[in-house]
Amino acid sequence: MEAAVTYSGPDSGHALSTDGRCRCPHCMTEGAGHNRSMARLSTALLGGALILNSYLLRLLFPDQLFASELSAMAGAVVLTIPIFTVAFKDLVAGHVHMNELVALAILAAMTRGDFASAGLIAFLLLLGIIIESRTASGAQRSIEELIKLAPHSATLLKDGKEIQVDVLDLGVGDTIVIRPGENFPVDGKIVKGQSTVNQASITGESLPIDKEKGDDVFAGTQNLTGALEVKVSKVGEDTTLGKVQELILAAEKTQAPIVRMIDKYAGYYTPTILMIAGLTWWFTKDMNNVVAVLIVSCPCALVLATPTAIVASVAAASRLGILIKNVADIEVAAKIQAFIFDKTGTLTEGKLSVARLAPAKGVEPAELLQAAITVESHSNHPVATALKALADETGLSPEPATKATEFHGKGVEAVVGKKIFRAGREAWLKSFGTDFSKIEKSDDAGMEKAMSVIFVAVGDKVLGWIGFRDTVRKEAAGSIRRLGELGIKFCAMVTGDRKSVGALIANELNIHDIEAECLPDGKVDYVLRTKRDFNVAVVGDGVNDAPALASGTLGIAMGAIGSDIAINSASIALMNNDLRRIPMLIQLSRQSWAVMYQNIALGVLFVIGGISLSVFGLLPPIAAAMIHTLSTLVIVFNSARLVRIGEELTRPETVESP
Predict the structure, then answer these.
(1) Which of 16, 562, 15, 18 has the alpha carbon at shortest distance from 236?
(2) Which domains does the chain have, with CATH numbers?
């Protein structure tokens, strides 16, 4: 039926405007797809009422046979017009689909003068069309839901005055005002104010994120607590929301290999069924059997077996902030045997934190920390950022300096009163004649090697050293463990950092292998070597890992929100940095394929079983229509189970166990 012709996705002529609204003729008619469904439903209800009236007249007023037949004829005509129209269009276009089987079955019933049966059959089949079309048009409905997230108007701040304008009129560089409770219409950067923002619509994160001046915000997310002034950085299709819309449409237009296989043999199906119907007539001479064969052989359940599962899995993935660019990658993900993770920004937070304070003999830890904060407060180096964060936690403030100088790659120097404070590399401090004799040798030299270290001195006296480590993501260990439970055979880590640093993290996370001190081409070589033995998924941040992501069997970019490079460099993009999405992706892909095969088996069973019963006269035409509709419902509801996968990751109370 019609859904069988259109299930692979919406038409390709969509043109999203700068506010994300589609301006193509199809969608400008206030939702043509929705209007079509409502028209079909109205037709089904009107025709169904006429057919019901026919049966009631026969039952209650047996003498009103003409009125009963007239009502049945009118109902049959109303109900069959949509089906005959689609079948005729197929024939004009030179295509033969299952629509023609249905049209022939109904036509055969009508030629026998049994308009009541023909109308009831058409009613049941039209009901199936409505269900199928609403199920198969998942991409368009996903886009419609996303469009609702972006407001169509905005408050523009111009010359100190607030002006209400259409989002279409906003340009890059404009400043807009977003009040609490409003959604962001475009991507931008906060220039004034602070607030809490709900980004779940884009990233799937359960908890709101605190935002302040300098932070990025994204179209379709919601401002919760404070008024903000935002400078527009991206509009229309360039926004993160616009790219998500494009990716969903693109994914829905692609086909999984199994769908392409079904399409390949679909052209042989209708001639085969017509031959079976002809043989049934030849041997039984019973038109009821022929009509039943034509109805029950309409393989809508079989055709919907994979698209409904794909729509459900893509919807579940999108809710979790997992963007699948090609549905064929769902099958690829299901076959992954090994994972290779980038370290910095993937398994770790990508920002340093203070791991150890090692004061020299006779120096208190507080004295060492105070001096380090004083000198590093004049730098923007990641080490300085980590020290500033620790200072905020401990309540320490830097001493005022009259002069500060940063020496790139060496350290920082500050003049406080008559004293010179320095923090940096050991060799750099020694060049000033700094005395290191009171630095005690560490009992755990391996730990020291696994950290980034700076030495702190005042004048020619060294106060000690401070070790820094990149923070491992709290959910990393649980995610690696879960991958093992899912049957992943091999997990490795690649990093450009020292091997001692990488080994410490690998041991903490129970990772099988580590490739350290490698440049981007070295990461690619390691991935290619691993691919000789396994189907490999490469996980990285999508910026400096693009070559490695492209060389794996599957590339997964983390933290892709707002990043064009991350979205374009990988097969699958995670809109946040939650590593729990990785095992969830594997689980979802495997369950998706299990559901697809279940659906195909059920569809084949319904068709073969129904044809067998019809040929021998054991399945009347009306019962065949009911079985056809039932088979469609079974497939739809079986696929719908996939939508709920991963719900626990979107609940605020979810806490990752260590």
Answers:
(1) 18
(2) 2-142+255-318+589-647 (no CATH), 152-246 (2.70.150.10), 322-348+473-588 (3.40.50.1000), 350-472 (3.40.1110.10)
How many Cα atoms are found within 13 Å in the side-chain-facing hemisphere of 34?
Answer: 8
d(CA 273, CA 265) in angstroms, rounded, equals 13
Paired tokens of 578:
């939650």
Residue 92 pLDDT class (50, 70, 90 cuts)? confident
Q: How far apart are CA 253 and CA 183, in angstroms?
A: 29
Q: What are the phi and psi torsion angles at 477 (to 5°)?
A: -60, -45
Q: Which amino acid belongs to residue 5?
A: V
Please report the pLDDT score of residue 9 as a whole number.
Answer: 33
Q: b or e along 123-161 (b: 16 or more beta carbons within 10 Å of the residue's beta carbon)? A: bbbbbbbbbbbbbbbbbbbbbeebbebbbeebbbbeeee
CB atoms within 10 A of CB 268: 9
Q: Respond yes or no: is residue 342 known to be catalytic.
A: yes
Mean pLDDT of the chain: 77
Give the pairing of strands 338-342 and 490-494: parallel
- Return the pLDDT at 133: 57
Q: Which of 114, 342, 541, 545 is catalytic?
A: 342
Where b means 16+ CB within 10 Å and e means fewer, 76-100 reads bbbbbebbbebbeebeeeeebbbbb
Nearest 10 degrees: CA dihedral of 281, 285, 286, 287? 50
- The CA angle 95-100-106, to the nearest 5 degrees, is 165
Beta strand pairing call for 419-424 and 452-458? antiparallel
Question: Containing H/E element for 374?
Answer: helix 365-376
Tokens of 147: 């469009």
- Alpha-carbon distance 179 to 227, whole Å? 4
Q: What is the pLDDT of residues 128-148, one digit of tens each?
A: 666 555 544 444 554 455 556
Element (H, E) at 342: strand 338-342
Q: In this predicted structure, what is the pLDDT of residue 485? A: 93
How far is C-alpha 555 from the chain's CA centre? 14
Question: Among 109-118, 228-237, 242-251, whose mean pLDDT is lowest?
Answer: 242-251
CB 468 within 8 A of CB 453: yes
Six token digits for residue 368: 């060492």
Nearest by Cα to 274 from 90, 498, 108: 108
Q: How far apart are CA 449 and CA 470, in angstroms?
A: 13
The sign of the torsion formed by the CA atoms of 217, 223, 228, 229 equals positive
Cβ–Cβ contacts within 10 Å for residue 535, how many? 16
Query: The whole model's pTM is what?
Result: 0.64
Could you tell me which of 640, 632, 596 has the C-alpha nearest to residue 132? 632
The residue behind tokens 């009125």 is 67
For residues 638 and 602, the answer to whether their CB atoms sit within 8 Å is yes
Q: Taking a C-beta distance cutoff of 8 angstroms, is the pair 23, 17 a contact?
A: yes
Q: Are 398 and 392 in contact (CB under 8 A)?
A: no
Q: How far apart are CA 283 and CA 639, in angstroms?
A: 39
> Which residue would you say has higher pLDDT here, 236 or 207?
236
| pLDDT(358) > 80 | yes
- One-letter amino acid for residue 327 of the chain: V
Question: What pLDDT score was predicted for residue 480?
Answer: 93
Per-residue pLDDT reduced to its tens digit, 400-458: 888 888 887 688 999 988 899 999 888 889 889 888 888 875 544 444 556 778 899 99
Residues counted in the chain:
658
